[in-house]
Design a protein that fits this description.
Blueprint (H helix, E strand, L loop, with lengths): L1 H6 L6 E2 L5 E2 L2 H7 L6 E4 L4 E4 L1 H20 L9
Antiparallel strand pairs: 1-2, 3-4
C-alpha cells in the first residue's frame, strides 16, 4: 500500500515518432524543467529531474546519510 501511495501517482509520458519523451507544459512547469533533464534510475523505474534540483537533492541526501552514519540527528554536530 505504501509503495502504491508513494509511486502510484506517476505520470505516463508519451513517445513521439522518433522515440523521444514529450512532456506536457504542466509537467515542465511543476518540475522546473526547461531545456535539459537528468534521468535517475531507481531500480525498476526512473525519475526525470531538473539538473540543478537533482544536484541540490543529492547534496542534502548525502548530508542526511552522513549524519545517520555518525549517529547524529539532522542539524546536530557530532561530538
Amino acid at each position: 500500500d505504501m509503495s502504491f501511495f508513494c509511486h502510484g501517482d506517476g505520470i505516463f509520458l508519451k513517445l513521439d515518432q522518433d522515440g523521444r519523451i514529450t512532456m506536457s507544459d504542466f509537467l515542465r512547469e511543476h518540475t522546473g524543467i526547461s531545456a535539459e533533464v537528468a534521468f535517475v534510475g531507481r531500480g525498476n523505474f526512473f525519475q526525470i529531474w531538473e539538473p540543478g534540483r537533482l544536484a541540490a537533492y543529492g547534496a542534502q541526501a548525502r548530508a542526511r546519510l552522513l549524519q545517520l552514519r555518525q549517529g547524529t540527528k539532522p542539524g546536530e554536530r557530532p561530538e
